[in-house]
Amino acid sequence: MEKAQAKLELQPEGEQDPEAEAAARALLTDLYQFTMAVAYWRAGRAREPAEFELFFRRCPFGSSFALAAGLRDCMRFLRTFRLRPADIKYLASVLPPDTDPEFFEYLQGLDCSGVTIRAQPEGSLAFAHVPLLCVSGPLLLVQILETPLLCLINYASLVATNAARLRLIAGPEKRLLEMGLRRAQGPDGGLTASTYSYLGGFDSSSNVLAGQLRGVPVAGTLAHSFVTSFSGSEQPHAPMLAPASGQGLPRDLSTLAKSWLGKVCECLGLRAEETHPGERAAFVAYALAFPKAFQGLLDSYSVMRSGLPNFLAVALALAELGYRAVGVRLDSGDLLQQAWEIRSIFRKCASRFQVPWLEAVSIAVSNNIDEKVLTRLARKLVSVRGQPCRKLTEDSEKQTLPGTKAAFRLYDPEGAPILDLLQLEEEPAPRAGQELRVWPLDVSGGDCRSLTLTPASLEPLLRVYFHLGQVCEPIPSLAESRTLAQKSLGCLSPSHKRLEHPEPYQVALSEKLHALLKGLVQSNQEGP
Amino acid sequence: MEKAQAKLELQPEGEQDPEAEAAARALLTDLYQFTMAVAYWRAGRAREPAEFELFFRRCPFGSSFALAAGLRDCMRFLRTFRLRPADIKYLASVLPPDTDPEFFEYLQGLDCSGVTIRAQPEGSLAFAHVPLLCVSGPLLLVQILETPLLCLINYASLVATNAARLRLIAGPEKRLLEMGLRRAQGPDGGLTASTYSYLGGFDSSSNVLAGQLRGVPVAGTLAHSFVTSFSGSEQPHAPMLAPASGQGLPRDLSTLAKSWLGKVCECLGLRAEETHPGERAAFVAYALAFPKAFQGLLDSYSVMRSGLPNFLAVALALAELGYRAVGVRLDSGDLLQQAWEIRSIFRKCASRFQVPWLEAVSIAVSNNIDEKVLTRLARKLVSVRGQPCRKLTEDSEKQTLPGTKAAFRLYDPEGAPILDLLQLEEEPAPRAGQELRVWPLDVSGGDCRSLTLTPASLEPLLRVYFHLGQVCEPIPSLAESRTLAQKSLGCLSPSHKRLEHPEPYQVALSEKLHALLKGLVQSNQEGP
Question: I need a surface site. Which of A172, A479, B220, B307 has the fewest CB within 10 A?
Fold first, then answer.
């Protein structure tokens, strides 16, 4: 069962936001940001204009691309950022006792009214060295904001990128369900992972809270504990089920399933006594609760000798009453081999018992599905439940290219991105159809040649989302960002989308930025 | 700078708990727990007594041990667990429309008044297969609680175990600072990691929120961005510093540092012109803000030709005014080699300038310090900043040993644990000095021999922390749990503490539990 929910839009200032209180903890930062703040303040530099950029030095997971994500959480954090008296009191207790009391007075008035955020849209393709987010504002404040914004953008973008890679492997049609909550880094780690797995391309999550708070479609049926909690010796409780049509008398589903079990075992050459009666009782109980959404989890005992015939018995009993089972799930063993065998048995039974839809019911698989396993599975299966990998990878906050920058994506006539161009913000924007000389970014620092090209079209990458304390461009809904991600990925050339050894996507500098960087490198080499 | 804070105690029912609202989200669970709940309810089994156990099938990171952690978060979750009308409305929107409305009425009355939690104390040693936590209560509710309790215990225990391993490598004296917030799985992932790194043996965290909310000691000084934000051409702002004694006239620290730079460079055979003036300006600014807690971050430019002489210049200027610098930090390059060289230069300058304390100031290192790097560093350095690894490892919730169990740790006459004994709860407890026959747990399922032993002393491992909806044993403070962890680890034999290929710690079953298990295995093999 699965149902998309209304999306949680960013709410206007003042309205109730269930997450605002938790998100708005201004002390979510490293202590060294505050010790540096004291020193900036002491040096008379607190209000000096400053900017920092968040970008990937290398895209995660060996990708040529990343997905930009986490902007909504940043907006929520910034809008409500304030140091409450209790926060300042706590800070005073951990900073040296001789810290100037005027510093703490200064903190009392601190808010984001002087802060501006430029960022790539949520869900867009982000390449190495191109900023995902630029924060500008007073030096002291921007320094304090560095840690929370990194924390909010970094993990969200990693999870979204990982999900996008799994979606590329699975192809557009397969259903991908994330169910990693129990292994997540705490409740909020799980909430974030479920949210951004969806943004990156998963269809749904098992995490109910992600559904309630973030509008992620939720899905799920049953686990082994349910199956093994039935022994089969219980008296079936209220086993009567009315036909789907509403016409005709209710039948005892338990008895009906037992009679179908004999026919199924005969057809498949199995022994009915080898099937587990508790497993069948569990399937009957689940089918009674959800006759229109019955799914069998097959591997609590033996998939082929018990789980499968029990599923078929209940599914055919349901069919007799006019209901269609949803399918089965496998959670252990050789998933692909078993899925093949099960599909052929479904075909056989569909034909033998004249229930055509049985041939095509879904076979879902789960159990530590990573990119490698998914690659093997992807061509054969209808539906896959995976847990996106949560590898944390280095994301660097160090600014290597000088100056406040603008960024543009240049497209060829077919609409495929050619390269991303970084330039100084004050330079005139490039124009479609106009020849342009650019300098491909050479990370190794060596000298490289300029490139001349004429983009068929282009778009600016960084938009102002937050200006002087106000959200000035609404963040699209999560589902809209998810669509943008898939659309952008769709335009990217296959050579960049390749998951292993992808061709690096080119990022280039304008003439002016290139000259500025060259000058800096030389002056550094010559010493101060 | 570092200061332990008052610990956040679990607050009595009704008092304000800043985290309660965020933690008490009853929908923090997998949807399949609710679909199963519908089916249990439909089958008349909602109130049937049930129990599940949380344990590690294999201890994480290849350890022979884990640390039990996360209990406090579980208590917080359970105490406030309630499905609010909005939660139930949301559930109704994602479950099939024909779900019996009486099910949702049943959910309205659901709370933890029928739930009992037995658990190993926070911070205690937990071995594979011995439950960290046992939850008993009505089947439907216990099923819903499975995911959030796993989520809360699993990650906390992983982080604590990882921290304990790093502490074993570093030895008891070295200072370990966790600073992983910016790479964490979102804000709460970071909060949890900082909290349980401390419990597992770290000294402090850079995460200010973990200090404020959880009482973790916080520490931190400055980052590269601070150093590089000074060019050196700025006019020093308010550079006058009064002597530490309060006696005598303030001096211009900037000028003083410059004059010391000449002497330092002469002593070390360096050229003062090669040092970066911006770096020195940053050090002076930081020293003016924190004259009693000055630390130099050495690797923004060149450690040996700029960072170190600049640090020494400022440290010696401070010394002239009666202040002692805290030390230096290295964040790149060959940390060990550099630390050696720096220590020898400190000795040389301490002697040359007659500032004895300079010889022994701390050399802190950071930058992706994992177990391997730490092993190399541990013998040489005073203080290490690391980021505990956040590997998620399989934690299984599947119950393989039947029945409600009691667990005891048996000790030899020297107070070292010999083995953990699992038995049925109804069996009489073993006694110190009394001979006992036990069956070592054979995970492979093969037959193994019984063992006879006489424990010198023993202790029960599982205590009742929550009974019928009430917290019935206070959770010790975080710092107390941290002490318990180190004390328990101290008693464990070195062969089990070895980080690579440790000798597995033995877990054994009582005669009765062993017989019960054997019977079950046989009946499974014979089929139902």
Answer: A172
Nearest CA in chain A to B40: A285
pLDDT reading at B11 higher than 50: no
Per DSSP, the three-state class of A31 is helix
B311 is a domain residue: yes
Euclidean distance between CA atoms A219 and A233, whole angstroms: 31
Q: Are residues A32 and A158 in the same domain?
A: yes
The Cα of A257 is separated from the nearest Cα of chain B by a number of Å equal to 16
Q: In what order do the strands lie in the sheet with A457-460?
A: A451-453, A436-440, A506-510, A417-424, A405-411, A457-460
With beta carbons less than 8 A apart as the criterion, state whether B47 and B139 touch. yes
**Residues B341-370, mean pLDDT to the nearest whole number:** 94
Contact pairs from chain A to chain B, CB under 8 Å: 340
Q: How far apart are CA A78 and CA B524, in angstroms?
A: 59
Residues A133 and A11 in one domain: yes
Q: Which of residues 452-491 of A touch B (CB under 8 A)?
A: none
Q: Is B237 on the interface with A (CB under 8 A)?
A: yes
Give the nearest chain A residue to B224 (CA atoms).
Answer: A398
User: Are both B232 and B379 inside the same structural domain?
Assistant: yes
* A226 interface with B at CB cutoff 8 Å: yes
Record: contact A146-B225, CB cut-off 8 A: yes
Q: What does DSSP say about strands A506-510 and A417-424: parallel, antiparallel, or unpaired?
A: parallel
- Is B184's Cβ below 8 Å from some Cβ in A? yes
CATH number at residue B226: 3.20.20
Q: Which residues pair with B385 in a beta bridge?
A: B177
Q: What secondary structure letter does DSSP report for A234? A: S
Assigned domain for A344 exists:
yes
Q: Helices H, strands E: what count in chain A? A: 17, 23
Choose among B1, B22, B225: nearest Cβ to A143. B225
Residue B209 counted as domain residue: no
Tens of pLDDT, residue by residue over B440-496, are 986 555 557 899 999 999 999 999 999 988 888 888 888 888 888 898 888 888 888
**Which of 20-49 (A) contact B at CB < 8 A?**
21-23, 25, 27-36, 38-45
B269: left (phi over 0), alpha (psi -120 to 50) or beta: left
CATH number of domain containing B49: 3.20.140.10
Which domain covers residue A286, as residue numbers?
230-325+327-360
A10 and A158 belong to one structural domain: yes
Decide if A207 touches B, using CB distance below 8 A. yes
Return the bridge partners of B453, or none.
Answer: B436
pLDDT in tens, B254-302: 999 999 999 999 999 999 999 999 999 999 999 999 999 999 999 999 9
Number of H helices, E strands in chain B: 17, 23
Q: Does B96 share its domain with B76?
A: yes
User: Per DSSP, what are the bridge partners of residue A491?
Assistant: none
Mean pLDDT is highest, among A345-359, B79-93, B455-469, for: A345-359
Question: Mutate which of B21, B36, B367 to test chain A, going by most A C-beta atoms within 10 A?
Answer: B36
HSE-CB for A378 with a 13 A CA cutoff = 16
The one-letter code for the residue type at A180 is G
Q: Are residues A256 and A147 in the same domain?
A: no
Are B345 and B399 members of one domain? no
Cα–Cα distance measured from residue B32 to residue A224, given in angstroms and rounded to the nearest whole number:
11
In the block, which residue shows the tokens 């008052």?
A: B6
DSSP string, B269-311: T--GGGS-HHHHHHHHHHHHH-TTS-EEE--SS-IIIIIHHHH
Number of domains in chain A: 2
The answer as to whether B204 is a domain residue is no
- B25, closest residue in chain A (CA to CA): A209
Regarding whether B371 and B239 lie in a shared domain, the answer is yes
Among B336, B353, B386, the domain-final residue is B386
